[in-house]
Write a structure and sequence with these properties.
Elements: H1 3-10, H2 43-49, E1 56-62, H3 64-73, E2 80-83, E3 92-93, E4 101-102, E5 105-106, E6 115-116, H4 123-137, E7 147-152, E8 167-168, H5 181-186, E9 191-196, H6 204-215, E10 219-224, E11 232-233, H7 247-251, E12 265-266
Parallel strand pairs: 1-7, 1-9, 2-7, 9-10
Antiparallel strand pairs: 3-6, 4-5, 8-12, 10-11
Helix pairs in contact: 3-4
Length: about 280
């Protein structure tokens, strides 16, 4: 399957959530008949069992591959996974035997047989998306299925510090990346459950989304990923620069936009200065 076909699997025309499937990661995806299906996350069953189904949407803010595995496992419980990944996976070094390090941190092999030298190593996420496509293709997800939005919790800080010559693909979310509370309500959604690894407090960029929903009457709940207990209602604090017209421009200061969309570009080497002599 080519990237356009894979995108169509995740964003079918009959899905009301297709408009919020971010296209940034899909050019890096390739699915063949030999692609294994993704081993799904058993925690998804517990998460779904503890929540009322018909009026609930989810936001999974987990490490990329875990987010995909949990989201695809929720398909069997009647949910539609909606990937919102706005960071480009980035280029790779092509020597599969190369074992260099950056700042003492070992680099990881990418899917293409090279070595990732990105601030956010998205190779596990890309592999999970490819495998999840095979699973999703075999699933009969109803067009009215509620959404489970997939995020990468490492998007803001990455796996290693940004330094010259690395591909800086850190990214963040904005309210425009999600449907409005009005749209959620039009599809019968009255509550949103945030799933994170070890805490209930949302990340700063996500607060701008959740607070808008909360102010519009959508109940916001949170739960830890491996918790055996159900979610609990949280009050999302009003974030800094909330609804400020210049919030987006200032928020992406220091992030690197990608010419093909989303975020990601090489950090240039600093100028050595010099002069005449």
């Amino acid at each position: 399957m080519i990237p356009e076909q894979i995108y169509g699997v995740w964003a079918p025309e009959n899905s009301p959530w297709a408009a919020w499937v971010s296209p940034v990661v899909f050019p890096s995806l390739h699915v063949t008949s030999s692609t294994d299906e993704l081993a799904t996350d058993p925690a998804a069953a517990e998460i779904c069992r503890a929540e009322p189904f018909s009026k609930t949407a989810f936001v999974l803010d987990l490490p990329g591959a875990t987010s995909v595995a949990t989201g695809i496992a929720m398909v069997r419980h009647g949910y539609r996974p909606v990937p919102v990944f706005s960071g480009a996976p980035g280029p790779t070094r092509l020597d599969p035997g190369e074992r260099t390090t950056v700042d003492g941190i070992p680099e990881r092999h990418s899917l293409q047989g090279g070595v990732s030298f990105c601030v956010v190593d998205m190779s596990p996420l890309v592999k999970a998306m490819q495998q999840a496509t095979a699973t999703l293709l075999q699933s009969q997800v109803p067009s009215e299925a509620p959404p489970v939005f997939l995020l990468d919790s490492l998007r803001l800080f990455g796996h290693r510090p940004p330094t010259p010559s690395l591909f800086d693909n850190r990214w963040m979310v904005f309210p425009q990346d999600f449907p409005s509370a009005l749209f959620l309500r039009s599809r019968g959604i009255e509550r949103v459950v945030l799933v994170q690894e070890n805490h209930l407090e949302p990340q700063d960029d996500l607060k701008h989304v959740l607070r808008r929903w909360q102010d519009a009457g959508i109940e916001v709940r949170a739960v830890k990923h491996l918790s055996v207990h159900g979610s609990q209602t949280i009050l999302v604090a009003r974030p800094w620069r909330f609804k400020a017209l210049w919030h987006r421009a200032l928020a992406i200061w220091g992030l690197r936009r990608n010419s093909a969309g989303g975020f990601g570009s090489i950090i240039p080497e600093p100028s050595s200065g010099g002069g005449f002599g």
